[in-house]
């Protein structure tokens, strides 16, 4: 009898990131990522749905405790046929990932939130507007700041040298997290994170490690260079940025990056 891979991955991730102590807190940072491609001719209708009814549904799910929060990303670059995803939906769990919500559970949440639509109608609308490209569970191991509506987010896909995921994550936390903290403190960026994909896990299943850089505006993204250099000097006064980046580029090479705009953000109602 084999242990379910999703549970094994979550368990190993939890063990590798939590300090050993008698009573460990529930692991956090797990999130579900859904990538979709819009069907031909459905661009305007999709945007209206995503920022309208879909936002209301996500708000109900967050307020009911199914998720801790959610963000919706729209691809900026690369765009068109080169874009793997037109939109990405990120739903954050409160602890370990839970089983998918059932149709009956969703209908109950919708009724409680007084949203006049059914789970089946939502499924049909999704099929009309778009196709699901992939769905995965990821966990962040370090998070600085966070994303809000109107921000721009760069997602960096990384394939660690020799498949050494832990060494890459540790290096990102040691070298880039202090820089990210300085950038957020200076108001140059909104946040940063380093993540690992928990499931699916395989050579064909996307990046083993990823980082995200979050900017408060498109202009901040474009003009990031000098700010990064200044932040590096403050975070690592004894290390030149060129010298410091060299081993990181080898240990954690970036295969691909994508620029998104945060077009929606959902947090618990106050």
Structural class: alpha+beta
Anisotropy-based shape: elongated
Radius of gyration: 19 Å
Q: Give the neighbour order of strands across the main sheet.
A: 1-3-2-8-5-7-6-4
- SS element count, helices: 9
Secondary structure: number of strands: 8
Question: Which regions have little confidence, pLDDT < 50, spanning 5+ residues?
Answer: 1-26
Do you know the CATH architecture of the largest domain?
2-Layer Sandwich
Report the span from N to C terminus.
46 Å
* Helix and strand element order: HEHHEEHHEEHEEHHHE
Helix percentage range: 25-40%
Q: How is the main sheet built?
A: 8 strands, antiparallel, barrel
Percentage of β-strand residues: 25-35%
Tell me the name of the CATH class of the largest domain: Alpha Beta
The whole-number mean of residue pLDDT values reads: 86
Number of discrete domains: 2
CATH domain topology of the largest domain = Alpha-Beta Plaits
